[in-house]
C-alpha cells in the first residue's frame, strides 16, 4: 500500500508542514507510522548509540614476560580501543609500516614513549587495515617485540618479524602522540600526550647552567 507520512516536528511539537508518500508493507504499517513521528535527530542518535555500544577495549600487555606484547596479534573493528598495559620493565609501543620494520609509521602513527609498569596507553582503531607495532627500547624490535592488529596473509606478523629482525636501527619517535593515557582522557590532546617526565625534562633543559 501507499500512505502519506507527516513527520513530527519535535522542536515545535506539531506535525511538519511538508508531507511525503511512502510505499509500505501493510503488516508493518502501524509500526512505521509510529517510528516516523520521532524526529530524524532521535533516529540518528539511536544509530550513534548502536555504534558506541559495540566498540570494545582490547588489552595488550607490554613487558609482562620480558620483551614481548601479549597477545601479539589481535582483531579489532573500527571504534575499538587498543589498550596497551605496561606490566614490567621499560618499553614502548610505536606504530610501524609493514614494509619498514623498526621505523615509525609515515601516516596515522602512534607512540607511547618509553613507559614503566603501570602505564596505560590507548589508541582508537579508525579502520580495519593491518596495524603493525613495535617496542623502540634497546633492540627489542629486532628481537621480536612486535605485534599486529588485523593481519592479512599478505601482511602477516611473521613477515613483519623478518623485516624487523633485519632492521639496522630501532627508531624512537620521542614524545608520545596518536593515543591517550586514560587518566588524562578528555583533557586537550597536547596536554594528554605530554607525560609528566617530558614536561620536567623540557623545563630543566631551558634553565641556564
Ligand atoms: Cu621493549
UniProtKB/TrEMBL annotation:
Highest taxon of the lineage: Eukaryota
Domain Phytocyanin as annotated: residue spans: 73-145
GO molecular function: electron transfer activity
UniProt-listed PANTHER family: CUPREDOXIN, SERINE-RICH PROTEIN, PUTATIVE-RELATED-RELATED
Protein name from the UniProt record: Plastocyanin-like domain-containing protein
Amino acid at each position: 500500500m501507499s500512505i502519506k507520512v507527516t513527520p513530527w516536528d519535535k522542536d515545535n511539537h506539531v506535525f511538519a508542514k511538508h508531507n511525503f508518500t511512502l510505499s509500505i508493507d501493510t503488516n508493518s504499517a502501524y509500526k512505521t507510522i509510529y517510528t516516523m513521528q520521532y524526529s530524524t535527530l532521535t533516529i540518528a542518535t539511536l544509530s550513534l548509540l548502536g555504534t558506541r555500544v559495540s566498540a570494545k577495549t582490547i588489552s595488550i600487555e607490554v613487558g609482562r614476560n620480558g620483551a614481548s606484547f601479549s597477545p601479539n596479534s589481535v582483531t579489532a573493528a573500527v571504534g575499538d580501543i587498543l589498550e596497551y598495559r605496561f606490566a614490567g620493565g621499560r618499553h614502548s609501543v610505536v606504530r610501524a609500516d609493514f614494509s619498514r620494520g623498526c621505523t615509525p609509521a609515515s601516516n596515522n602513527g602512534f607512540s607511547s614513549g618509553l613507559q614503566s609498569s603501570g602505564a596505560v596507553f590507548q589508541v582508537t582503531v579508525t579502520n580495519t587495515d593491518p596495524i603493525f607495532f613495535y617496542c623502540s627500547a634497546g633492540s627489542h624490535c629486532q628481537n621480536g617485540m612486535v605485534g599486529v592488529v588485523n593481519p592479512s596473509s599478505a601482511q602477516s606478523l611473521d613477515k613483519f618479524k623478518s623485516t624487523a629482525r633485519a632492521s639496522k636501527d630501532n627508531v624512537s619517535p620521542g614524545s608520545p602522540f596518536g593515543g591517550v593515557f586514560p587518566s588524562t582522557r578528555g583533557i586537550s590532546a597536547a596536554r594528554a600526550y605530554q607525560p609528566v617526565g617530558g614536561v620536567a625534562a623540557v623545563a630543566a633543559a631551558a634553565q641556564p647552567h
